[in-house]
Amino acid sequence: MSERNIELMRQMAEFETSHDRDRLFALYTDEVIFRDVALDVLATGKDEVKRLLESVYAAMEGYSMALTSAYADENGGGAEWIMAGKHTGDFMDFPATGVSWKLRAASIMRFSNGLVTHRSDYWSVSSFTKQVGLA
């Protein structure tokens, strides 16, 4: 088990919740590959991942991520999260509803030299649309 990479995931949740972009993106390689499986979105490189995250922050007031469990070795790991926010702006194909939501999510990651090289996020679109009144 890699305590260093578990700490990296803990910091990821902290910095995503505080919207501390500089500290968050210091945890990723420049060529990071980020996949949001639920939305079928692939972002390659820090700039694309930043644009994706900015769209989340713009549409989801108070967006937060709480780490509930994690496992990692030197090369990869997985994490479970609770994501939450208020759907105040249009996001992808989801028009703003002004409704708060809270979801369980999971991520699978790969690491190199203490940084994230790949991240795939899994969460339920069905649960989100039900909670915000779009289903």
From TrEMBL:
Gene3D superfamilies: 3.10.450.50. Keywords: Isomerase. GO terms for molecular function: isomerase activity. It comes from the Bacteria. Residues 10-118 form the SnoaL-like domain. InterPro entries: NTF2-like_dom_sf (IPR032710), SnoaL-like (IPR037401). This is Steroid delta-isomerase-like uncharacterized protein. It comes from Rhodopseudomonas pentothenatexigens.
